[in-house]
Structures are given as C-alpha cells and as structure tokens.
Amino acid sequence: MNVVFVAAARKSIRRSERGVVGMIIKDTTVPDGNPVTIYREKDIPDTFSDASKEQIRFAMKGNDTTPRKVVVYTLAKTEEDYSEALEYFGIKKVTWLCCPTVKTDGQEEKIVTWVKDQRENNRNKVKAILPDNTADSEGIVNYATNEVTVNGKKYAPEAFCSRIAGLLAGTSYKISSTFAVLEEVTACEKLDKDALDAAVDAGKFVVFYDGEKVKVARGVNSMVTIPKGKADPWKKIRVVETMDMMHDDLVLLAEDNYIGKYPNTYSNKCLLISAINSYMKELERNGLIQDYIVELDVEKIKEYIIENKGVTRDEAEAMSDEEIKKQYTDEKVFMRASVTIVDVMEDINLEITV
Predict the structure, then answer these.
(1) Residue 187 in contact with residue 168, Cβ under 8 Å?
(2) What is the distance, to the nearest Å, from the Cα of residue 95 to the centroid of all Cα atoms in its chain?
(3) Is residue 134 a part of any domain in this protein?
(4) Are residues 65 and 197 part of one domain?
(5) Of 127, 140, 56, nearest to 96 (Cα)?
(6) Which end of the chain is least crowded, N or C, by CB within 10 Å?
C-alpha cells in the first residue's frame, strides 16, 4: 500500500506542474461534441468567433509551463445563465475556471456561490478567476487590474481573466505566481507601491509595471476575513493549491484502496497511517511540505467509545493513549494530522552594515 501512495504522490506532483483550465464562453455556434478540449492551438474549432479564439489562446499561455489542457464549454448567445455549464464542471473537474463574459452576463455571484458549494460540500476543489469581485474566499481569485494593453489593444479585467487562469494553471509547484512576467503585456494600470500593497492586502490579484516589464504583484486569492479553522496561509494561491492536491489525493486513495477492503483492526489502521506517511514523505522530498505528523486521534476515539461502547468517562480517562488507540470503533477510523505547507521566498530583508 505504501507503494500505491508513493506512486500517487509522484503522479500528483507531476500533474500539479500543469493544471487544467475550464472556460465558459458564449458564441453564435455551439460546436459538435460540446464541450471541446483544447490541447494545442490547432484544436480550437474554426467555428468559434475571433473573440472566443482569442480568449482560448490567452488561457493556453501559462507561466513557467503551460496548462495541461483547456476545456471549453460553449453556451448559445441567447442562454441567460451558466447552470448547464456549471453542472458539467461539477462532474468533470478542472483546476481553474474562467468565464470571459461573466460580468456582462451578470453571473458573478452565481459562480461565487457555486465554487463555495463545490469546495465545501461536493469535494470538488475548483477555483475561479473573477473580475474585480471581493468574494472573500480561497476558491476565488479577484483579478482587479483595471486595464492592460496587449499588441496595442486594451483589455478590461473581465476580458483578461482567461490569461490569469492560464497563468495560474501553468505555474508549477516549484514556484508561485508572485512576480510572474506577462511578456505579451506592454502597459497596465499604474499603481505606486502603497497602492499595490493596499490591493494585495484587500485580496486583489493585480499586475504592475516594474520599469521594464509587466508582472504579477503577489499570488493571493480574494480571502481577507480568516474564518475559524483557517489561517493566513489560506490567502496564498500556492498554499491552497497544495492543500487541494493533498485533499483530492488522499480521499481518492482511501476510497480506492482502503474503504470497504480491510477489517477495521488496530493493525490495519496503523497500515493506513503508514501509507499516508509515505505519501507525505514524497511531498516533503519535493519541497511541498515539512514537519508533518499523521496519527490516530485519541480524543475522538475516546469520545466515541464513551458515547457508543459503554465506557464511562472515568474509565476512558484512566486509559493510556496507546490503550485508547487500540479500542474498537466499529466502521469508524479517527485520525488527525498536522503539516506545514512550504511557501516560496517573497519577502527578502537584507541589512548591510558599513
């Protein structure tokens, strides 16, 4: 089982180098086989409008690498909402979702609600790029640069979210999107340092001109208010990406390899913990996490046997931790883990004494 978990970690790390972009567009012609999966520019259907083709090309640009693919769901021009497309992306998962006409179509809040519901209730750790939207969520990136110029053409936030989605999907686990260069952008909204810092603190993903090139200020999502159970690192796109990868991997691996397949004995619980530790070790070896621990949750087991196994509070409190861990818990497995997700260098202070 350790081999399975190690292999899954390696596969996930390779997969995390190239995310998947989901895109909802509205066009006069809905292509056969909708949605369309784009791997290369030649895969873009000729029937798409020039505007749709441009948005797909934006999403394919990437950062240090390119997105693995772009999945384009086309809606008819007369379609009033995105329910049909969101139903599809609720089943066929993508890493980043963008919608080039979301503000024009008045669908921003629908996307926000859908993303939050998917992440909290449906195990779908999708994230979306929205134009100038203060969603206050780790699942929504608030792209808020008022204007950028590409090849002499100016783009408002709504029309450039696809580029940001592609950039984030094309940012490998080795780096973050902070200071990522947008080589095709020749000009952007001018912001001084104080304005940039204020934008970042407000959960805005913005770009700026450093005197030579246009680049991302900092890779943050829209989260500003830290809810119970979360912390400041949840504001960082790279950290959330790692958490989402771990969630998806461990849920799937447990379902495919453990649930319904082993008696719920203490020894088998230890095997499961060993397998998860092997997965964590592979992530640590690749610099994604450090200082991790996975173990049986003594307090949860204690509460379970008191409520369900006829053990009194006094009897439970008199047991050692090892005795608690070996208690039979029916079909339940109670575990706990703590892990430090490794961020990248972003703030460097150097004091020179002369």
Answers:
(1) no
(2) 6
(3) yes
(4) yes
(5) 127
(6) C
211 and 288 housed in the same domain: no
Residue type, 279: Y
pLDDT tens digits for range 250-304: 888 888 888 999 999 999 999 999 989 989 998 898 888 999 999 999 999 999 9
* Strands, sheet with 185-188, edge to edge from the N-terminal-most edge strand: 153-155, 148-150, 185-188
Angle between helical axes of 2-16 and 237-257 (0-180°, round to 10): 150
- Residue written as token pair 């397998």: 275
* Calpha distance 39→285 (Å, rounded): 30
- Note down the domain range covering 136: 17-216
Q: How far apart, in whole angstroms, are the C-alpha atoms of residue 169 and residue 63?
A: 8
pTM of the model: 0.90
Q: How far apart are CA 63 and CA 266, in angstroms?
A: 46
CB 289 within 8 A of CB 280: yes
Q: Is residue 221 part of a domain?
A: no
Please report the beta strands in the chain, taking only residues with DSSP state E, as ranges in sequence order: 20-27, 36-38, 69-76, 96-98, 127-131, 140-143, 148-150, 153-155, 185-188, 204-205, 207-209, 214-216, 289-296, 335-341
Asked if residue 69 is part of any domain, the answer here is yes
Tally of structural domains, the chain: 2
Q: How far apart are the first and last CA of the chain?
A: 58
Express each pLDDT in 64-117 by its tens digit: 999 999 999 999 999 989 999 999 999 999 999 999 999 999 999 999 999 999
CATH number at residue 75: 3.40.50
272 shares a domain with 137: no
